[in-house]
Specification:
This protein has 9 helices and 9 strands. It has 271 residues and is an alpha/beta fold. The radius of gyration is 17 Å and the shape is globular. 49% of the residues are buried.
């Protein structure tokens, strides 16, 4: 039995729906062994409308985690999530290049769910110049795609295509711009660009579904499939099916948030 291994370099969501918690649940559902290099801890204040509290991890601690995983075990694929400082973004990129890691999925997290301002204003430039060039796949949502491409607010599929082309020019091999719930369309639309061809990936638009951790889950599903040897396009189409089921079977956690159901496909749809 071969052991497919995946690494997530990301933050901890104390409520369990996003970040490394979502990544590990997704890896497990795909039969992949998951490991984590924790970059930041995010807590939420239940006495202040679930406002986010962000606690970055010291850089030396992150370096030690990465050495444990990459030099001590080895990985078949990895993803990045919330990287709270430019120094940590640089560390992630340097590590990928130093160890010639393959199957790199960059989820360019810039805001916490529900926020409408960049969590770390200097991130867009660092992600553009430092991390995007080492990505096998980068998976921005509409807001992130607007920031990375320099196009600003994105509201249409045509604008998603334009953003994907701009982001590809930064060095990523594949760009997946996710329409999510904010794109006004009858389908759940994503745009995939490989430098030559633009593909429209459609899924069911699920009204009323909970989406906390959806971006983390989608990118983690891509990472898991790459770890098992799938091609990039195979991994993305499989992940689209997985995240659609996860949103379809999502649930309310409390009055503030509802996560996707990482076991939704296995428990309710796979016969």
């Amino acid at each position: 039995m071969s052991l497919n291994k995946a690494l997530t370099i990301a933050g901890s969501d104390s409520s369990g729906g996003a970040g490394i918690q979502a990544d590990l649940k997704t890896f497990q559902e795909h039969g992949v062994y998951g490991m984590t290099a924790l970059t930041v801890i995010v807590a939420m204040d239940p006495h202040n409308s679930w406002s986010h509290q962000v606690f970055p991890i010291e850089i030396e601690t992150i370096k030690s985690q990465l050495a444990t995983i990459i030099e001590g075990v080895g990985v078949d694929a990895l993803k990045t999530g919330m990287l709270p400082t430019v120094e940590i973004i640089e560390l992630a990129a340097e590590t990928i290049k130093k160890h010639q890691l393959r199957n790199v999925v960059v989820d360019p997290v810039m805001v916490c769910k529900g926020a409408d301002e960049v969590l770390y204003p200097d991130h867009a430039k660092a992600l553009q110049e430092i991390l995007t060039p080492v990505a096998t796949v980068i998976t921005p949502n509409l807001f992130e795609a607007g920031q990375l491409s320099g196009l600003g607010t994105i509201t249409t599929v045509e604008e998603m295509k334009a953003a994907a082309i701009k982001i590809h020019e930064l060095g990523a091999k594949y760009v997946l711009v996710k329409g999510g719930s904010k794109l006004k369309h009858e389908k759940a639309i994503d745009v995939l660009y490989d430098g030559e061809k633009i593909e429209i990936i459609e899924g069911e638009r699920i009204e009323g579904g909970y989406t906390h951790g959806a971006g983390c889950t989608y990118s983690a599903a891509i990472t898991a499939e790459l770890a098992k040897g799938a091609s990039v396009k195979e991994a993305i189409y499989s992940a689209k099916k997985f995240i659609t089921a996860a949103i379809r079977h999502s649930f309310a956690l409390n009055e503030y948030v509802g996560p996707t159901n990482h076991a939704g496909l296995r428990l309710f749809e796979v016969k």
